[in-house]
Amino acid sequence: MKQEAETATGGPPTLWDRTRQLASREILETALRLFTEQGYDETTIAQIAREAGVSQRTLFRYFPAKEDLLGGNQDSFGQVLTTTITAQPAEASAWEALRAGIAAVQGLHGTREKALERFRLLHNTASLRAGWLEKRLRFQEDLLPLIKARLDTAASHADMRARAVIATAFACLDAASMTWVDNHGEGEIMDLFDECFGELRDRPPH
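^ that's the sequence the OP posted. Answer follows.
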């Protein structure tokens, strides 16, 4: 997961900021290693805290929920999505804006190896998958007004069309990431994402 180079105020990181970033990174790397070695459900918060050298209370200050330990606070993903989509030029289509947001989120994973481990855990762990789907539905509702504003659609159908576009984008992300995992991380997720959308656009199902 990428760390912010600057603080929320825009200034350079302080010693306290850097210490927090190092601690956060150590916790994440420890959690990912344990999840990979012994399974997500089999790994306890207590074990992660102990091996990372922090108290459980400290761990929860950085990561409020266990699923956040897979790669950072999931709410930050939603923030990156909405911020990136909002920042797209007015002439960008709904699909182009969504693609930009999803590509920005992929950048949060850091290295290819860590991204592959996280996606493998996500797709192969039922509890993680269920949690991700629940949060994704919330993300989709948050994105609704942003995407609807980019569609030239009659008011009575705007919500429906916007929901369909957003759901299609996330379905393509699912298909792309699952294929990427099956191929052991070969290629680029966003290339697979584009290929998936192209398949839907050029050859719709009959």
